[in-house]
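Fig. S4 source data, part A: sequence.
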Amino acid sequence: MKEILLISSRILGAGQEKQWIIPQGDVEPWQTPLEAAENEAWEEAGVKGKFQNNPITFFTYSNHRMKYKVFCYSLEVMEETIDWPEKNERSRIWINISEIESKIKNQKLRTVFETFRTFMEKNERKFQNNYI
C-alpha cells in the first residue's frame, strides 16, 4: 500500500501536545472546497498534486461553540517542497496507512483513514504515487 502524509497540529497553549492530523481549513468566499483543500495542502504540508474531484468522506466536530464539517479529498502528491508557508509551525511524516492506529489519537480521523483505505483499495489502479 502507498504511504500517506500527516502533519503535526500547532501547539495552541501550555500543556497541549502536538498531534498528527491532516491539512484542513476554512473555505473562503472566493474559493471552491477543492481550491481550499489545494491551498491548505500547500500551506500546511508543502505539497502539490492531483486531487480527486469529489470528497471521499467528511467528518464533523465542534470547537469553541462552533460546529465544523470537514470534507476530505484525496491528493496524489506530485511535488513535495523543502520549504512551505507553515514549515516553522508544523512537521510532516510519511507513513504506511497500516500505522494509523499508532499515530492518530482522534477517532473521527481514524475513521476517515479507514474510509480512505477502502477508497484506495477500490481505486488502486488509478493511483501511482503517495497521498495526503
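Fig. S4 source data, part B ends here. The beta strands are 3-8, 20-21, 47-51, 57-63, 66-72, 75-80, 92-96.
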